[in-house]
Amino acid sequence: MTKVYINGKLLDKEQATISVYDHGLLYGDGVFEGIRVYDGKVFRLKEHIDRLYESGRAIRLELPMTRADLTAAVKATVAANNLGDGYVRLVVTRGSGYLGLDPRKTSDPQVIIIADTITLYPREMYEQGLKLITASTIRNHPQALSARIKSLNYLNNILAKIEGTDAGCVEALMLNHKGEVAECTGDNIFIVQKGVLKTPSVDAGILEGITRNAVIGLAREAGVMVLETTLIRHDLYIADECFLTGTAAEVIPVVSLDGRPIGEGKPGPITRDLLARFQKLTRGETA
Ligand code: PXG
Fold this sequence. Notes:
alpha+beta; six-stranded antiparallel beta sheet
């Protein structure tokens, strides 16, 4: 039986319930993290915990426990579920309140930890690469809601994701309010141009992905120059290689955008090397 952590208790999945008055449900008022578990060990847990606290801080939601206690709670939930390889969803909602926006009228924040399996992209996509389209839905304007906050309100990304799936793509490219390349609906994007690895900087209005940062580190270790820079779609159309990074996707090659092949229309050498290095890292860090 899957055990779910809610506010200090490990409950059977069926008993793990939250009020319908919770502002996480009523308004998407809360923050979350999606974290991978490899061989029973939580990957980059500190980075995920730090980002969760930053997201909470940004929406003025004070987490009701210390980082150390939350870290221990994540590990305990993983252990209680005998998880080898899997996925942790860490959610903090504003708590239950009245049918009104005012966050002062909510109860205590609710802390939920789910440790379960994850559905991955099919194996062939890692070998053959995936196709992308550009969504017409742009990333939230950073002065409306910062993309750096991993909030429970993902409508912006979901609308773009629907555009992707309608076009037969598992992901979709999102531009920012300036028309620059930002990221995909749940993944960061990279290109290789003349041997240089390029990815939009955090200023482009993106989530600062933990996989992204790990891959930047791996590329630098491998002697590949990395630039966090402004990219427009033109750069993607003329790129030699392209790939996405994310907790769920890890490193996945992209072979076309808007029906145009990228590079030779197949996963490139730097992409394949970084994919292998990332797999080694996730196994190595957990060995
Ligand atoms: N951009 C956005 C908008 C995201 O939601 C990423 C980039 C990649 O960040 P990380 O830190 O994961 O490298 C994300 C993360 C899912 C799922 O079930 C999506 C994410 C994370 C975990 C699961 O689709 N998105």
